């Protein structure tokens, strides 16, 4: 533990960098994917294009995408923007589809009722459709945040990696500095779990109606299995 | 000369397609990549699919599966690889990489198989039991065929995740296509780096398309397009990259 | 009671052709009376929903004109028009993410009412639709189907719209609850006097609720538009006759008051009387056993008493038939009277007052006589 | 590469650690991203601070490709360097191999703004290393013997594949053709492990690596001087190199020997992983420079 | 027709208590007749499904014994037992990944029949349940709800099991299709003579389908077990009476043949007759107008003819009431006869033969007389 205790300031400042590298793309990605998801849900043609394309983008391995970003953006290879842009792409690829599906899953009767009550398209989206999509949206954001936090470390291979620094640096010492490596891994896992937990809590706070679903109704009608 | 041209030149340079001066070329690296991936996915499937099917069939332990999958998502692949390769040493490098990759693939496959079996229309399972199928027959003849779309989806996700992670194995001195990225970086040769990235992305996309095709061939036509938009929303979270 | 503008809805040769060429409604002419319940009924796909939704422009008519209170609905923007028309659909279409109160308050808030005021009004509406105020804080998923449907009605009433459109609102709830909801709607209508257009494919519901019923046939043509009584008595053609269904003669009796049917005195025997006294009290071999409030408990007959000794106990009774209420012109119908007679083991149906006490008996023959008289006096269309 | 090469003109702000420019009057000391460079930078910093020079440290910047431009644009003022590789970095065609030739050539090649102070006798250069077993079995003493013994699997850092004194140099100088090249780390634990476990028969290690003695490895002779001299030398911006600085750093170079480097490296890799600054201070004190 | 073993099912004080303590079925004693349809009916949660599923051991009884053909069901392994018992559930529970044919062939294949033979049999079964053979190659998702339900029945019949268990099989389809399916089931039953246990919560369905009906109350107690006629005429208590619903007196007439009701001759007037002739032919002021096949078209009366000249045209007719078939003891019921009379503008219901030709008229009074006689002769339980 000596090494860890001696290096708490470095670890903490790297953790802050790490979070910033991982979470900024989540925020940007979310903002970008809301209109895209809406468009994908609205027009079949848009869906037929957006969903497969985002699926394909999501399949590209992170290391490859990090390395290709300078090609696409004209940035320098060590620019943190590369990692952030790549992670934004993953976030958008993940969320566009979730949002489109979540919007499609809003019961037709609810949408109809909203229109019949005099909501216009935009008002209806924010008052009715978006809130109902929150559970799926939060699930998507959680996955994006957690996987981004883990992926930032890969960025260290091209020099931008937050806590990933300790993984490679510890491996470079001779003999390997296991304390350093394990401290890096542990902090990454910790960050991921904490962020995931906070997002889950936020999701719950935003969707009080999903709790206590099983009220006074619904007993007895349960499927009898086995 | 643009970077795209440089990448093109690098990829078409015959020296890079064979071992030159002891330095391995693209075919060998591709072979290594496929070897890591295939071995890991195979072992993970042998572990996870029967286990997931069992848990899905009995319904016991579902919460454990969800917990395991979620916490594994948080594990940084790079750290896992470094730790295992260092701890096990280079003579056991292949084993170390395989273990790391299996650890990544198992949760994905487990979750896919579990939810696939769980999501089978309960009425169909009830009917199967009611017509006198044994538990074994229910699993093999009803639950697994119906879970196939989700299981194959999980195989796809797991394979892609393994491909992605296998490419960072080069950071800990192993082979695979990631080698070009790492070496290119160390040598400050961006053409090599970018070419490596293109090869990795290309491999991922080709595998994705092949597995999608396989899925289309194997899954019963009765299950196609059956997933309502609602169930899609619930299972929309992919686990790849 | 809120004051309501008179709202007549007029369809003037309205046609709807969907993009795929389906003609859902074919030059429909229909005048819907203000302050009444008008029911659109017909087989699946006959264009009921389409007709209804053209009124609030959820569907735009292909040709023809729809007037509300003499004004073309196209004169207003759709969203504005809709805020003045209540709309209730199957499964209520409640917003799952809002509490019951907030669901109900939706339109007032949209129209600019302060949130607090809208909520107070919503609480009153809970009373109006017969729900306890405690439910206001729940979410829709925590309500039963019937309760949800009531909330749907309350929500549609919130802006106090003079017109209410209801599309098969009760078809997803079970029969007992549906009956409740129908009664509630009739009560509401008598209190509030809205102009209600109600869609159903259930002819029984149409007949029960409608002041007037429009029967549509597939292709969107109006087959008949009449009062329920006329519909049962004089279906214009085979399609309507078969749609109105079997038993239509019997069901038509439901529109005739039982007041005209002669009620004969019945011998009532208190429970616990000595069997000998009971035997002596029988009329035509039968007698009604009652409790201390004169409510009927069952029958005894010469044969049923032949093996009994001592005092009359519950176990000695023969189960009774259905009852009918006969103390005012509005209460029981010839239908309930006839069923009471038919279901009674003695052949005499028991008439009770609204308190449930036996007031006499009615025979099937006297019901038929009352029907004959009603026919002669023109009460039955023929 | 062309003008669109993303690797060109990397700023010194590698790793996103760029900070506000150092206050005027302070000397900014940088280091590369391996332990020995950090240690040397700490030694320079220690001795300069003792002489009252205000210093700022920017350690672990990265490779030479990253930090060298930083010296030119003034982001850093001083960095520990190695004569041989610095020379070939500036002049790709340089052929000098002996310590003095390299040092002289280097002084000529340096741009106007920069200068090197006295070189120390401490050398840390690449070397071809084999295990004792391999040396005995194949009867190896020098790199030439390796060629005679037939093809081997060779390990080293990725850049060794293409460096002038790497595989191309070994081929040119000794006609050594390896059977397979394994990219490992730069003299790190993986290379050591690869040698020990037999995953490679020969590897590129640094002569100051304490693992060589610890594992009883054999350093093969380099009779044809494939690897140029690599004396440790302070590379500094001329304008900042006043007499105080020069004297202080020259005093350090006078005390620094290869043995000292080996010893200090060994201390750094002790199980408790002490900080470079502490190791530097202890040494400076022990040789009377503090 | 396949030969069937007699299969009586006996519940002997069977109780089911679930793990959470719910008593779903409470010491049930019930004997289910072989070759008949027995319906279990009751409100939601009363233990119908539990009772049914104990028969094929999908649920194991907590105590008591269930015998099939005198043999304890626990003597066989569950899977073996189930292969001999057909089971049909709501939404059919078809296997989505198999074609219709392969769904139907499932049990025979399980039992070892060759695939080709099982498929041939499956095709025959498509005929049996009234589906075109072309549907065999489709997947369940490509069928309508009603078609799926028929496939479910076919699948249950595939192994030719003597016993069929059906749990609310028709409750998810719309009323028109449900009617079809019910008719189909009755036809099937009359052809195949299976022992069918049928669960529903719809009392009308129970009365329509059941040879005997068991009414359960919540808590899993048997409230009444009788024929539908007895259930309507003599509900044992208020619970059953209210469950059986209103109109039970009238509906009970459905179980009495109209054969006993007197048919009086009617004057029939061919369409196109001169109006004068028609006027002369009226009886009691009314006459039935018929086509060349003697099928009734509508009524004319003294008053309706008063403004007509020349020949009788369709437009001159008064719409008729419902008809009833009266040419054999099995055809029409007193219910249809009474409705014919009640719905007729003349007060006389038209009796037709099974070809649709007018055979005479029936009055409500004669229906009541027939009911009276039936009561006296004990045809009606009292
Ligand atoms: N958006 C649409 N596009 C094309 N055809 C439509 C559309 N909506 C309805 N239709 C068709 O128009 C006809 C009338 O539909 P509508 O929904 O009005 O019938 P309905 O009487 O309400 O039927 P149901 O009782 O089944 O609700 C049907 O044939 C239907 O298929
Ligand atoms: N697996 C179970 N565990 C605990 N309680 C159960 C279980 N299955 C059913 N029950 C309870 O047993 C009672 C009877 O259930 P059952 O399903 O037999 O009723 P049912 O008459 O079929 O009702 P429905 O008409 O709603 O289908 C109910 O109170 C139900 O909640
Ligand atoms: Mg409709
Ligand atoms: Mg049930």
Automatic annotation (TrEMBL), chain A:
TM ranges: 21-40, 46-73, 125-144, 151-169, 181-202
GO biological process: glycine betaine transport; transmembrane transport
Domain ABC transmembrane type-1: 15-199
Compartments (UniProt record): Cell membrane; Membrane
GO cellular component: plasma membrane
Protein keywords: Membrane, Transmembrane, Transmembrane helix, Transport
Alphabetical list of Gene3D superfamilies matching this protein: MetI-like
Family annotation (Pfam families): BPD_transp_1 (PF00528)
Membrane-related topology note: Multi-pass membrane protein
Annotated family: Belongs to the binding-protein-dependent transport system permease family.
Name of the protein described by the UniProt record: Osmoprotectant transport system permease protein
TrEMBL record, chain B:
One Pfam entry name: BPD_transp_1
Cellular localization per UniProt: Cell membrane; Membrane
Keyword tags: Membrane, Transmembrane, Transmembrane helix, Transport
InterPro entries, A to Z: ABC_transp_perm/SBD (IPR051204), MetI-like (IPR000515), MetI-like_sf (IPR035906)
ABC transmembrane type-1 domain ranges (all copies): 30-211
GO cellular component: plasma membrane
Membrane topology: Multi-pass membrane protein
GO biological process, one term: transmembrane transport
Broad class of the protein's primary localization: membrane
Family according to the record: Belongs to the binding-protein-dependent transport system permease family.
SUPFAM superfamilies linked: MetI-like
Protein name per UniProt: Osmoprotectant transport system permease protein
TM spans (from-to): 36-55, 80-110, 162-182, 194-219
UniProtKB/TrEMBL annotation, chains C, E:
SMART domains per UniProt: AAA
Molecular-function GO terms, alphabetical: ABC-type quaternary ammonium compound transporting activity; ATP binding; ATP hydrolysis activity
Keywords, alphabetical: ATP-binding, Nucleotide-binding, Transport
Residues covered by the ABC transporter domain: 9-244
InterPro entries attached to this UniProt entry: AAA+_ATPase (IPR003593), ABC_transporter-like_ATP-bd (IPR003439), ABC_transporter-like_CS (IPR017871), P-loop_NTPase (IPR027417)
SUPFAM superfamilies on file: P-loop containing nucleoside triphosphate hydrolases
Pfam families listed in its UniProt record: ABC_tran
EC number in record: 7.6.2.9
Organism superkingdom: Bacteria
Gene3D superfamilies membership: P-loop containing nucleotide triphosphate hydrolases
EC main group: translocase
PROSITE patterns, A to Z: ABC_TRANSPORTER_1 (PS00211), ABC_TRANSPORTER_2 (PS50893)
UniProt family annotation: Belongs to the ABC transporter superfamily.
Protein's UniProt name: ABC-type quaternary amine transporter
């Amino acid at each position: 533990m000596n090494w860890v205790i001696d290096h708490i300031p470095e670890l903490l400042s790297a953790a802050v960098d790490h979070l910033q590298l991982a979470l900024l793309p989540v925020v940007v990605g979310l903002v970008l994917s809301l209109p895209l998801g809406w468009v994908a849900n609205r027009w079949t043609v848009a869906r037929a294009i957006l969903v497969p394309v985002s699926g394909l983008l999501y399949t590209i391995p992170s290391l490859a995408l990090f390395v290709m970003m300078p090609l696409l953006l004209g940035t320098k290879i060590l620019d943190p923007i590369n990692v952030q842009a790549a992670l934004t792409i993953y976030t958008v690829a993940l969320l566009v589809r979730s949002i489109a599906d979540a919007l499609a899953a809003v019961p037709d009767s609810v949408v109809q009722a909203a229109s019949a009550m005099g909501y216009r398209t935009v008002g209806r989206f924010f008052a009715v459709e978006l809130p109902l999509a929150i559970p799926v949206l939060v699930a998507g954001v959680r996955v994006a945040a957690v996987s981004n936090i883990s992926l930032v470390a890969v960025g260290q291979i091209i020099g931008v990696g937050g806590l990933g620094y300790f993984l490679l640096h510890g491996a470079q010492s001779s003999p390997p500095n296991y304390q350093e490596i394990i401290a890096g891994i542990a902090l990454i896992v910790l960050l991921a779990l904490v962020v995931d937990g906070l997002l889950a809590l936020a999701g719950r706070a935003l969707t009080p109606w999903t709790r206590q679903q099983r009220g006074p109704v619904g007993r007895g009608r349960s499927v009898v299995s086995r | 000369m643009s970077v795209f041209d440089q990448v093109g030149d690098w990829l078409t340079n015959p020296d890079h397609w064979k071992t030159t001066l002891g330095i391995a070329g693209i075919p060998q690296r591709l072979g290594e990549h496929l070897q890591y991936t295939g071995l890991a996915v195979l072992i993970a499937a042998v572990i996870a699919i029967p286990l997931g099917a069992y848990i899905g069939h009995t319904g016991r332990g579902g919460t454990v599966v969800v917990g395991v999958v979620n916490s594994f998502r948080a594990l940084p692949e790079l750290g896992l690889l470094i730790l295992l390769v260092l701890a096990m040493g280079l003579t056991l490098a292949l084993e170390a990489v395989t273990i790391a990759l299996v650890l990544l693939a198992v949760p994905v496959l487990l979750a896919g198989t579990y939810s696939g079996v769980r999501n089978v229309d309960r009425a169909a399972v009830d009917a199967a039991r009611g017509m006198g199928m044994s538990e074994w027959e229910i699993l093999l003849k009803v639950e697994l065929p119906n879970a196939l779309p989700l299981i194959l989806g999980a195989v796809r996700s797991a394979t892609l995740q393994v491909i992605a992670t296998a490419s960072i194995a080069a950071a800990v001195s192993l082979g695979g296509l990631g080698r070009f990225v790492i070496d290119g970086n160390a040598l400050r040769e961006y053409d090599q780096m970018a070419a490596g990235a293109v090869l990795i992305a290309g491999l991922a996309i080709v595998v994705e398309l092949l597995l999608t095709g396989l899925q289309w061939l194997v899954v019963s036509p009765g299950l196609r397009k059956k997933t309502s938009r609602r169930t899609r929303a619930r299972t929309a979270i992919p686990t790849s990259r | 009671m809120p004051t309501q503008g008179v709202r007549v809805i007029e369809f003037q040769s309205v046609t709807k052709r969907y993009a795929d060429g389906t003609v859902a409604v074919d030059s429909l002419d229909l005048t819907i009376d203000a302050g009444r319940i008008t029911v659109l009924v017909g087989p699946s796909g006959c264009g009921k929903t389409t007709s209804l939704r053209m009124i609030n422009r959820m569907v735009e008519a292909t040709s023809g004109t729809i007037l509300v209170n003499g004004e073309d609905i196209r004169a207003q923007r759709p969203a504005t028009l809709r805020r003045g028309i209540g709309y209730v659909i199957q499964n209520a279409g409640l917003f799952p993410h809002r509490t019951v109160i907030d669901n109900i308050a939706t339109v007032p808030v949209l129209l600019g009412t302060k949130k607090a005021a809208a909520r107070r009004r919503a609480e009153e509406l809970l009373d109006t639709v017969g729900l306890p105020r405690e439910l206001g804080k729940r979410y829709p998923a925590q309500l039963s189907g019937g309760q949800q449907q009531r909330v749907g009605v309350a929500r549609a009433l919130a802006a106090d719209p003079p017109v209410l459109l209801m599309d098969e609102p009760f078809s997803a709830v079970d029969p007992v609850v549906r009956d409740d909801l129908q009664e509630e709607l009739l009560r509401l209508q008598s209190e509030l006097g809205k102009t209600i257009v109600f869609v159903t494919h259930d002819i029984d519901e149409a007949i029960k609720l409608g002041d007037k019923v429009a029967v549509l046939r597939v292709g969107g043509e109006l087959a008949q538009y009449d009062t329920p009584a006329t519909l049962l008595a004089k279906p214009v053609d085979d399609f309507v006759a078969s749609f109105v269904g079997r038993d239509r003669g019997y069901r038509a009796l439901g529109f005739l008051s039982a007041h005209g049917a002669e009620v004969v005195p019945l011998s009532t025997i208190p429970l616990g009387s000595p069997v000998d006294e009971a035997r002596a009290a029988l009329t035509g071999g039968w007698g009604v056993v009652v409790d201390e409030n004169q409510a009927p408990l069952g029958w005894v007959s010469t044969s049923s008493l032949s093996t009994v000794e001592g005092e009359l106990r519950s176990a000695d009774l023969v189960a009774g038939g259905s009852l009918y209420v006969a103390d005012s012109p509005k209460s029981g119908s010839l239908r309930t009277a006839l069923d009471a007679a038919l279901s009674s083991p003695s052949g005499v149906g028991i008439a009770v007052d609204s308190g449930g006490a036996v007031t006499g008996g009615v025979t099937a023959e006297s019901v038929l006589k009352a029907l004959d008289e009603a026919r002669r006096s023109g009460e039955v269309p023929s | 590469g062309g003008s669109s090469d993303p690797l060109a003109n990397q700023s010194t702000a590698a790793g996103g650690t760029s900070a506000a420019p150092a206050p005027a009057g302070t000397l900014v000391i940088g280091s590369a991203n391996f332990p020995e460079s950090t240690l040397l930078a700490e030694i320079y910093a220690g001795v300069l601070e003792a002489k009252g020079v205000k210093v700022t440290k920017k350690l672990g910047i990265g490779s030479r490709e990253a930090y060298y431009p930083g010296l030119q644009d003034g982001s850093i003022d001083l960095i520990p360097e190695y004569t041989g590789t610095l020379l070939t970095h500036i002049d790709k065609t340089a052929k000098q191999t002996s310590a003095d030739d390299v040092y002289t050539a280097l002084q000529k090649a340096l741009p106007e703004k920069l200068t090197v102070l006295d070189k120390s006798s401490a050398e840390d250069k690449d070397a071809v290393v084999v295990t004792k077993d391999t040396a005995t079995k194949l009867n190896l003493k020098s790199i030439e013997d390796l060629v005679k013994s037939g093809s081997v699997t060779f390990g080293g850092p990725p850049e060794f594949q293409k460096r002038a004194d790497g595989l191309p140099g070994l081929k040119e100088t000794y006609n050594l053709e390896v059977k397979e090249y394994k990219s490992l780390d730069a003299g790190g634990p993986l290379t050591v492990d690869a040698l020990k476990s037999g995953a490679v028969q020969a590897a590129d290690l640094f002569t100051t690596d304490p693992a060589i003695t610890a594992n009883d490895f054999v350093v093969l002779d380099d009779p044809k001087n494939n690897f140029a001299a690599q004396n440790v030398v302070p590379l500094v911006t001329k304008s900042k190199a006043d007499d105080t600085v020069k004297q202080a750093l020259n005093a350090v170079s006078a005390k620094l020997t290869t043995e000292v480097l080996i010893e200090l490296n060994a201390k750094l890799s002790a199980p408790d992983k002490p900080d470079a600054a502490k190791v530097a201070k202890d040494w400076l004190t022990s040789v009377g420079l503090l």
